[in-house]
Amino acid sequence: MARIRTAKDVSRKEVIIKAAAKLFHEKGYKAASMRDLAVKVGVEAASLYNHIRSKAELLHDICFDVANIFNAHINDVETSGKPPLEKFETLLRFHIRQMLENFEEVYVSDREWRYLADPYLSNFQNQRRNYRKRFAAIIEQGIESGVINKIDASTAVLIVLHAVSGIESWHRSTHKISGEILEENMMTILIDGLKK
Amino acid sequence: MARIRTAKDVSRKEVIIKAAAKLFHEKGYKAASMRDLAVKVGVEAASLYNHIRSKAELLHDICFDVANIFNAHINDVETSGKPPLEKFETLLRFHIRQMLENFEEVYVSDREWRYLADPYLSNFQNQRRNYRKRFAAIIEQGIESGVINKIDASTAVLIVLHAVSGIESWHRSTHKISGEILEENMMTILIDGLKK
């Protein structure tokens, strides 16, 4: 008889996904085992399977949860009616905060998505490409309305997103400035160069 | 009897190192085998050992060659007598060009150095830390002399170097702008935000 899923099961699953994100960040998806995960969660390996089917399912959940968060956000930004430079600033601050507050999940979805199995892999790649195009379109609007310097918009997206991924080193750093100061520093470096 | 190394041996070794950099970039150092390397070079696996001792030696040579290139360059910049902003610009352009023209070697030394064995590992880490400190010191000089915005210099180095590593995606991109335009775009985005 199939068990009925309760709220407690759902939150248990969330705990497992969170632990999986930490583990995949530390060891990489490929090297991580369900046994490692069980140790991290503090249960027997077998009992993990009451909540999830496989390591692949965990990667899938992490990657698509993060994709959903970013897609929902860019939807809001696009329909916000804000001027382009403010849209760009809002997107960038959101990326920075996600890297600060939701670090392991964002890191894993950014680096380990290549281990997704098809059809999820190609779906994820399409979403990624599409997101970057929408981000670039906002920069294009800024260029057209004369508030952003004439640059190649796709290249700007690439540069800016890689710069944000540098927060990874900040997490590893022992003598670190606060998240708020980091965010302001990033905005200074990355936004002011684009302003006309 | 030990063979005498000739100029031909040396250039053969360079060919092997170049191929190793390509291979480590494609597969990662850990997953790459000497057999893969032999296929890439177009020789029998056994004959590679006439020129190099081990896979570890190849990683060592790649990482330390790149470290030497960057250290020699920052020495020149420090003693150039140029004003701080120009020093920063020179360093940044050098990083961009190395990522364009010496891509696989720079990529491998930036990502795969963690597989070096001690004492090389700690030596390399020290050189890396030291390089970033010297880079940050140049930004500090710019802040002190009032030409660079007040920001945390170590964070600026971290952001800028990660942004440059975004050139990795540019290499993978199919519809790409030229290296020259990429360089100018990067300078616009990364320098102008720092200028007062």
Verbal overview:
The structure is a homodimer of 196-residue chains. Chain A has ten helices and no strands. In chain A, 72% of the residues lie in helices and 0% in strands. The first copy, chain A, has 196 residues and is an all-alpha fold. Chain A has one domain: Tetracycline Repressor, domain 2. In chain A, helix 1 (7-27) packs across helix 2. Chain A starts with 6 loop residues before the first helix and ends with a helix. The interface between A and B is medium-sized, with 29 and 29 residues.
Briefly say what this structure is.
By secondary structure, chain A is an all-alpha fold. Chain A contains ten helices and no strands.
What is the CATH topology classification name of chain A? Tetracycline Repressor, domain 2
How does CATH name the architecture of chain A? Orthogonal Bundle
What is the subunit organization of this protein?
Answer: homodimer
CATH class of chain A: Mainly Alpha
Q: What class, by secondary structure content of chain A?
A: mainly alpha
Terminal Cα separation of chain A, in Å?
65 Å
CA radius of gyration of chain A: 19 Å
